[in-house]
Design brief:
The chain is mostly beta strands. Helix content is 3%, strand content 50%. The strands form three sheets. Strands 2-3-11-4-10-9 form a six-stranded mixed β-barrel. Strands 5-6-7 form a three-stranded antiparallel β-sheet, with no helix packed on it. A two-stranded parallel ribbon has the order 1-12. The longest helix is centred in the last third of the chain and has 4 residues. The radius of gyration is 15 Å and the shape is globular. The model has no long low-confidence stretch (mean pLDDT 90).
């Protein structure tokens, strides 16, 4: 059995397929899945999801219009208890020096401090969360 990596409550992740590098992400064990802040989200008739990465607060967001194959539409209960249908995409990410394939739902998180949320499905069997720490990934080579 491989040893689980310890992560803090805030970590750095890069979403390679979207050219988003060193993005601040909140580790949320209360969330089932990953979520990414986007604007102008829509699905076209060919089952591609279009979205814009634009946020003045986060330098990693380059304002580029993105188009990715729709992975699936997920029913997600947000932190305020509302059920929301969200498009999700499957992407490659770099986290703690390793590359992973993962699913990310797309939503407007403009009212949240961190543009990315990492949930339990991604963390399961690979990571343990130390809630007293942050940015442990910065010390990983």
């Amino acid at each position: 059995m491989s040893e689980k990596k310890i992560v803090g409550t805030i970590e750095i992740i890069s979403i390679l397929d979207l050219e988003l590098y060193e993005l601040d992400a909140k580790i949320d064990t209360g969330a089932d899945s990953n979520a990414l802040h986007c604007d102008d989200i829509y699905i076209d008739e060919s089952n591609f999801v279009h979205f814009k990465l634009l946020d003045e607060v986060h330098a990693s967001y380059h304002g580029k219009q993105m188009k990715m194959p729709l992975y699936k539409i997920k029913k997600v209960k947000s932190s305020n208890g509302q059920i929301e249908l969200r498009p999700s995409i499957k992407v490659s990410v770099s986290f703690f020096g390793k590359k992973y394939k993962t699913v990310i739902s797309l939503t407007n998180r403009s009212d949240m401090k961190y543009p990315m949320l990492i949930g339990r499905q991604f963390l399961a069997n690979k990571f343990l969360v130390d809630v007293s720490k942050e940015y442990l990934s910065k010390h990983t080579k």
